# Entry
Amino acid sequence: DAEITQSPRHKITETGRQVTLACHQTWNHNNMFWYRQDLGHGLRLIHYSYGVQDTNKGEVSDGYSVSRSNTEDLPLTLESAASSQTSVYFCASSESTGEQYFGPGTRLTVT
Amino acid sequence: AQSVTQPDIHITVSEGASLELRCNYSYGATPYLFWYVQSPGQGLQLLLKYFSGDTLVQGIKGFEAEFKRSQSSFNLRKPSVHWSDAAEYFCAVGPRGDYKLSFGAGTTVTVRA
# Structure
């Protein structure tokens, strides 16, 4: 069955370190998204991609970057982790019909 | 500006009772509409979606939602809740012709025995 996987599922890092969260989908979807989930805010879009070599900023992109070198993967990088980036991160993918399929999430703690 | 509002942060309902979760949106035109459910420690699962046509849509797990254009609403309902329906529910909207979604802040549903 097609799926989205995220790794690691849990990560603790220190302020100032670079962190990369992995997202891999086997749906063969062109569209991929990264969100962060914080209490009281729902899900907020960080970055998204509509195909290989395409990346776009979402509403909370400061301090994050992504790259899309193939269809299956969209890694999210925190250039210099800050305590404000402690959150749960979700990756999602979609086709042209618009409904998004979500991964299980990565819980990131920045100390 | 586009926005999605879920007015109820937390709802408690008795098992077997009916449930209605509210969602209002502000968009220039009728967007695509979705409801997702998130169980603790899990990702989001799609319950149902509205693109066009019949304004009452059926989803999984016995849920349905009704689109009301005049009220810019897309409320989720279930006639009889089960203890397993305790979760957080998110309304999401996306503009036609784009693939991004905007999510409401979520409604947490507690089911009491």
User: Anything to note?
Assistant: Chain A touches chain B at residues 4, 31, 33, 35, 40-45, 48, 50, 58, 90, 92, 94, 96-105 (CB under 8 Å).
